[in-house]
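Before a colleague's protein record goes any further, I have to sign it off. My question to you is simply how this chain folds and whether the tokens agree. I do not need a full report, just your reasoning and any doubts. This is what I was given:
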Amino acid sequence: MPETGPGERAGEAFAALLTPVGGRLLEQAALEEARGDALRAATRLRAVAEEAAGELPGGADPAGVAAAALTQARLRSRAREKFGDRAARMFFTSDGLEQATRAEAARHRAARFAAALGEGGRVADLCCGIGADAAALAGSGLRVEAVDADPHTARVAAANMAALGVDDRVGVRVGTVGPEWAPAPGTDALFCDPARRGKRGRVFDPDAYSPAWDTVEALAQAAPAACVKAAPGLPYERIAPGVSAEWVSVDGEVKEAALWYGGLADGAARRATLLRGGRARTLAGGAEEEGAPVGAPGRYLYEPDGAVVRAHLVAEAAAQVEGVLLDPRIAYIASDRLVDTPFCRAYEVHEAMPFSLKRLRAAVRARGAGTVTIKKRGSAVDVERLRRDLRATGPGSVVVVLTRIGEKPFCLLCSEVSGAS
């Protein structure tokens, strides 16, 4: 009789988690994980699994099932940041959780698909991973064919569709996506999130994605409508003409770029979408990038959201606040007007001066600041060393902005008056 391999044993253990006894083990694993004692958790859960061995599916090793349950408990705990309370009933792999789309971004993207395709539209989700996007697409009323090359990942995705109650609208299968891949008849649009992790961690070169960028782009161009998710640092020269590129930030942190093709593209060549507090705000621009005027520091300093910067929409953000750039190459906006905008954080400027440690230290002390927040763009100053050198000890607080104006290092002492909301 042939020996069972590691992949088969992992599959058996995961399948056992989907049974009633597996559900009880997952509940116990969550309790043990919350206690924070890893050794006790492993020992206790293994004992519970061995007691229930007679209820496990044939071939499932109690120790392996216990280990799988603990792994899921740990991944679910980490996944709360991305999926909130839904994480407690989902299933994960370590790499799948790392690359999975945050729930807010997946819902935002799914709404755009649904608006274009209508109820019951059919989407092929290539490289579906654990199924975060497939679930969001199905939740918006679409029908989804989800494909992943890894059999275990596909099993996890299928389990998530059932756990989230959308398995009637999503079919998950194992498949390799290559140049010869073709969608099923009747497919209206394609979504692809190519793998961006290798054996050594994250992959930043699009040609090292799996599938490679040229393959992904060719499939997207051939589809009637398509969206490709990429890392936010995707080189601009890899974005083809006619594609609508969108950079998405969640709670102020840039998370991804989404490229929209064919029937899903629109008149905006570049978009910055900010997801915060359940709301989506979008700033858009055309194919030609505008240049903002340059001027001196004003009463207020605006720091554009990272998605605005990545989308090259700083000039559009400056126009909203009637502002100018301190330097044409750096994304800091000066204005004498305080404007409530979701696309920038606003700071009141108390002092602006050429950078000098001695002068800056004296200015910080004069303001009685002991809490110093240091922000920088275009500055080579070591932030942690500067923090130590300032030796700030007062009861107040101040924001120190380090930048460059022309070729001269500059610093501004500020206080935040409105965060992006």
Summary: The mean pLDDT is 92. Residues 25 and 69 are 6 Å apart (CA to CA). The two ends are 63 Å apart (CA to CA).
